[in-house]
Design goal:
Blueprint: E1 3-21, E2 27-47, E3 52-56, H1 68-80, E4 85-91, H2 102-117, H3 124-131, H4 138-143, E5 146-151, E6 155-158, E7 166-171, H5 178-186, H6 196-204, H7 208-213, E8 216-217, H8 220-226, H9 229-239, E9 244-247, E10 254-258, H10 261-273, E11 279-284
Parallel strand pairs: 1-8, 3-4
Antiparallel strand pairs: 1-2, 2-4, 2-5, 5-6, 7-10, 7-11, 9-10
Amino acid sequence: MDKLELKALGKVNLGLDIIGKKENGYHEVRMVMQTVYLYDRVILERNRTPGITLETNLKFLPVNENNIAYKAADLIRKEFGISEGIKIILDKHIPVAAGMAGGSANAAAVLFGMNRMYGLGLSEEELKKRGVGLGADVPYCIMRGTVLAEGIGEKLTPLPPIPKCYVLIAKPPLSASTETVYEKYDALEEISHPDIDGIIRGLSEADIRQAAASMGNVLEQVMLKEYPIIGRIKQAMLESGAMGALMSGSGPTVFGLFDSRSAAKAAARKIKSRNLTKQAYVTNVHNVRRNIDEGTKF
């Protein structure tokens, strides 16, 4: 095939706990990850021009080896000796630097797409092994769905899918580097750990309200102190009927789970009317696993 168009789906963390730190500086985590139907379009095209060409609709993003999607393509080209050129087009819609793994999702789509485009025959597990070298979230973005992530995020165990619900995603107009957030977490004297097992029990019993009530993110303690707007967005969601609201990943995106689309939309209007953010999206969870080994479309 000469051209392939893929959907790189974002994620939220229903739970994020840190249980230790390795000697190499990496944090050991225990997280419940959930794919949401908010995605970037990733287009791959065979190119007569040698090397990798990358284009994106966001002018501030790098289009060279500093872009993780570029790195993913370069990894595959070098390993399998692919001499012809490849063009990557990223049509970005997932908020950037937002705790939603947008960059990792792009890299996952490139790995999947090049595997398909060049008939490399790599299994899902083989793709995930290559992905972890690019970023801790890349293996999950290849797998997708409702998943328990452990280790540095690369040890993945499928969980029962979250029951149908609607997700309000709101990114406040600020950014903080993941590295800085973790450094500030390490300096905390008192830490309140989330109930990851409670989330898993709720999912196992198909009880979304128990799962939502158990949601927690250990990194929120850092971000709430630094950026009170995150707490105000959470409060607006809860006032509007969210079953639970939480910061995703290292932030600053906040998401809320709702049992109706109308309630989620009302919460979005409230957040915008309070000038908390202009970036607010209502979508749903995405529980369809992609079986790469069976050739299912990404």
